[in-house]
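# step 3/5: fold
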Amino acid sequence: MMMVATRGREQAFECDELIVGNSPAVRALRQIIARVAQSSASVMITGPSGSGKELVAQAIHAASTRAGQAFVALNCGAIPAELMESELFGHERGAFTGAATRRIGRFEEANKGTLFLDEIGDMRFDMQVKLLRVLEDGLIQRVGGGAPIASDVRIISATHQNIDAAICENRFREDLYFRLGVVPINVPSLAERVEDIPLLIEHFRKTRAAPARAQFDRDAMMRLMAHEWPGNIRELRNVVERADILFGGMVISAEEVEQLLGLRSNRPLRVVDLQARIAARAPVADMPIAAPKPVSPKPVSFVPAVPAKVVSLPIDRNAPIDLKVLIETVEQERIQMALEAADGVISEAARLLTLKRTTLIEKMRKYGVGKQAA
């Protein structure tokens, strides 16, 4: 019993190290990982590029009974189609031009362990048929080989593609999806868990040494949390590394973050701008990163955006008022006013309008004001 309890603590520690964050989305993800890890069922992980799908796969493996065996990863999108069969199943000497020696494939490397097939949606259709056969029979055959070889491998796959759409377009086999996606897991984007950004920054710095670190003040952290993060965690890691290189040992504000994100001028940070920023910032000792304290939303009254004479006009049978257009005009102008009042910080503008951040973003896209609030 003591061994089981100890292993449980080790698994929890491994999962916390791999899946960083304390947002509701991440807590739910950890719970799913803990449940899935107890079985050998195939798992398909979906989510946007850079969201950490391989880390989820590693966490499942680390918490499973196969943790002592190999975890083998293969990016299906990075292997030429003509070499995929050899990569997966291996080949015998002389099986094809260039096969000078026998080579075992990823299935044999991962025997008794876990095989992670990243970007499975990029696999060629004919290879999907061969993979399906292996999953159904549990037997592999090297290219140019004779007798089949038994394979005991847990398959975890991942893709950023819309698999349902790929199936409808006959780019992905539905029967293969049923074999691979016994348990589907969706990894949230960074924009869905922005409250984890301070913890992620600390985690990046634990795993990467730097002569001096940049510190983000409250406004800078708010700006990071307002960003859309199209590149997800990978993009955040690059921004943090960029900050440490350019502003190491200094406290930076939202203005520097804007430059680091490359949004304001849509061009790289100029040397003269960098020199001015560095000259204006005094070096500081490292300090812990603290997330900004949440502020309860409070309604804010803005001056009516539509002139009173328009609102007060009587309804004319010959010149009816388009109510929908009128409402949209008011809404668009209020959004623009809120963004100006919030200095372009989307989360603050959403607070002023008592809207959810995601709702405001949708409305900004609808009215084409996204770039103005970048």
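# step 4/5: annotate
The chain has three domains: 2-188, 194-280, 308-373.
# step 5/5: archive (pending)
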